[in-house]
Amino acid sequence: MLVVMATLTAPVAWSQTHPNELPLLTPDAAFPRCSMTQLGTAGFPDHKHSQYWPGWEVMHEPGGLAYGPGAWCRHHELMPRPDLVVEPDSKGCGRFTLQHNPSYGDCDMIQFLELLDWAGHEVPPLLGLDLADSLLVVNPDNLEAYTELTGYGMWRLYKLDIDCATMEPWPVLQNRTLDGHAAFMLVTDWILSERLGGVLPPWLHQGLVEYCAEDGQHLVNYMAEFRTNGPVLMPPALVDALLARGPDPEPQRDREVFRKACYNAFLMTWELVENRGGLEALRECIDRMLGGEDFSSAAMAVYGLDAAGLAASLDPIQMGEPGGKNPPLPIPHRQP
Prior knowledge:
Layout: H1 2-15, H2 36-42, E1 59-60, E2 66-67, E3 73-74, E4 77-78, E5 84-87, E6 90-93, E7 96-99, H3 106-127, E8 135-138, H4 143-150, E9 158-161, E10 164-167, H5 170-175, H6 179-196, H7 202-212, H8 216-227, H9 236-244, H10 251-275, H11 278-290, H12 295-303, H13 307-313, H14 316-319
Parallel strand pairs: 7-8, 8-10
Antiparallel strand pairs: 1-2, 3-4, 5-6, 6-7, 9-10
C-alpha cells in the first residue's frame, strides 16, 4: 500500500508549476511543505490572488458566519449584517475600521475590509497570538497623498503606528495585484508589534510579515531587476541594520535595499519555519517570549542556538536560494 501511494502521489509534485498550486500555509501544516524541485519549478507558495478567480467560494467560521472576500459584498451588492458598520467615509467590522474618501461606493472599500478580515482570521492561529484590540486603516486618495502622509515610496505598502495604519491606496494595491499580500502583511505586523513589542530581531519580524503574507514569490520577481547589479543575498547583520533604520533619503536606493532586505528576511524565515520544526516550533518560541523570556533564551530552548547563532545558521549567503541560482519567475496573479 505504501508503495502504491508513493507511485500515485509522485506525479502531483511535478504537475505543480504555479505558486497557487503549492500547499497552503495552515496552523497544522506538515513541514517542509515543498520539495526543492517544486520550489525550483513553481516558485514559492502564493494563494493571495485566487479570490479574484472564477470558482472562489466564500469562507465560513465554524458557526457558519461568512468572512473574507465575498462575505459582505457579492457582485458589487452589499450584504448587510448587524456587525458591519457602513458610513460614507468609513467601513468597519470587528476590530478593523477603514477610513476613506466618501466618493467611493460602499462595496469599493468594503472589498479591502474583507481582505483585512480574512487576514484577521488566518494569521493569529499561525502565530499562536490573539488579535490586538482594534486597528484603524486610513486609505489616502492617491500615491502623492500617501507619500506626503508617510514619507514612503510605493514599494513600502503601509506605515503602521501602534493601532493606526496608513495604507497605499487600495485601488493602487489592487491594480498592482498586491492587495491581498498587503492586508496579510499589515495584520501580521500589527499582531507581532502589539503582542510581542520589539523582542523579535528585525529579520524575524519582517520575515514573518513576508512569510505569513506569502509575499516570497513577488520578492523573487523583484530581485530579477537587481541581480544584474551584483549579488542580492545579504548577511543577517546587514538585513537587521537595513530593516531597523528608516527609509533612505534617495528613493531608488531605498527601493532596492528595502526589497533586498525583505527578501533576505523572508529567506531566513522560510528556512526557519519550513525546515526547522515548522509552525509548532515557532509558536513554542513565541509562547516562551510571551512568558517573559527574551528571544535569545527562547531560541536556545527551542532551536538549540542563541539569537546570534540562530541568525548565523540561517545566513542567506551560506544557505543560498531555495529556488536555485536562477529561480523561476512565475506571475502569481495569473490563474494557472
